[in-house]
Amino acid sequence: MRDEKRLAGELRATRAQPRDEFAASLAGEVRGASVRARQSRFGLWLAITGLTIVAIASFGGISYAATHNPADDQYGDHSCTICTTTHTTTNHDSTTTHGTTTHDTTTTHDTTTTHETTTTHETTTTHESTTTHGTTTHGTTTHETTTTSTEPSTSTSTSTTSSTTDTQPSTSSTTTDTTVTVENATTPTNTPAGTAPFTPPKAAVTKTTPKSTTHHVQTAGETKGAVTPKVSSGQLPFTGLALWIPLGAGFVLIALGLTVRTKARRSNSQAH
Amino acid sequence: MSPFRNRDPLANPEELIPRIYAYAAYRLGHGPDAEDVTSEVFERALRYRKSYDRTKGEPIAWLLGIAHRCTNDVLAARSTSHGEVPETEAAESVEEESVRRLSLEAAVAELGERDQELIALRFGADLTAAQIARVVNLQTNAVEVALHRALERLRRILDRQGEASGEQRRAAAEPSVR
């Protein structure tokens, strides 16, 4: 009598095996079909990728990216000056914050005036900025500043009266800003002996008269070009790659994808 | 659905073909019918490859589901055409293994369809009881019990065959002794 385990072992051991040539040919056929299916899928993927690139390019997506500065989208086209001054705050924007005014994201004017003996304008600008006592030139913006200090004083503490006159929107073409600062220099208390006799403080009139301040409307890629590279149309941003390259790549991918897919389908139909 | 979930079920055909063939051979007998069914199974699998869901089981289980249908088709065709006897390998083979296999095949052929199916899945396709349970939609315990009974019936058939062949041999030997 056979027991169950022995019978199971016999059933396993004597199970039929396919002929080698049958198994090999069937396996080859199945593998070939799998490869063709993969090729077909890859071709479809290539074609879709190419189609996407071409579609984006043809609807202006790439050219939009090539010509549009993302900073404009975020901050707009305002021109304003960040002026941090203890005496005079000159704002060239409708938005005024005492002490700090935003001129631009890329432009910062920090003007610190300390009335000691002279008036010092420290201007830090990320773009071209030339500061001269008396004349400050910011690119195309010209501020003429006339500072008159009648008496050099050794004291750094000053009382200031600031009057700010500017409600000029940033896009205006011409404006006249007049800032009159009347300084009443405090009496020096620690004048060393032997120096010049005390002169009563006179009004230190600082007249800042930008004769013709021209606020140039900044266009994308002009002033900001100093921060972000200039991009002309027909070029991709950041890389500066020519626009025809992705377009060409898209068309090549479509052609390649369709070719691969067609070939895979043809060989598939031949196999069947 | 994630592309990783439905990996290619036919990525390794070399491993799958012998198991499908063995299953078909237990159901139909070793030979051309089993080869036809195996080819048919893989052809259908290629055609309906996208319908394979990995979460529902291993590729072998999916293929055996197809093989089950293909085998039933062949068996149905056989029953309508003169009740053909399953084709077996040439009887002139004298090797012990071949004889043993032939006797086993004949014994399996005497079993009921359900028992044949279970034995083919267990010993032909080499599935576990749990995998068989998934294929035939039964509980694992039920499959184990059914397999046990199928083997018991097979053992009885083989014993009966052995007794019959022994009697035949004795009957054949008796005249020569006299």
Summarize the structure in words.
The complex is a heterodimer of chains A (272) and B (178). Chain A is an alpha+beta fold. Chain A folds into two domains: 39-69 and 232-272; 71-191 and 199-230, no CATH class. Helix content of chain A is 33%, strand content 13%. Chain A has helices at 4-13, 20-58, 61-67, 70-75, 244-271; strands spanning 130-132, 135-138, 141-147, 158-161, 174-175, 179-185, 203-208, 213-214. In chain A, the strands form two sheets. Chain A has a six-stranded antiparallel sheet, with no helix packed on it. In chain A, 24% of the residues are buried. Mean pLDDT of chain A is 58; it is low at 88-196 and 202-227. By secondary structure, chain B is mainly alpha-helical. Chain B has one domain: Butyryl-CoA Dehydrogenase, subunit A, domain 3 (Up-down Bundle), CATH 1.20.140. In chain B, helix 1 crosses helix 2, helix 1 packs parallel to helix 3 and helix 2 (32-47) packs across helix 3. Chain B is globular, with a radius of gyration of 19 Å. Mean pLDDT of chain B is 80; it is low at 1-5 and 83-91. Classes of the chains: A alpha+beta (272), B mainly alpha (178).
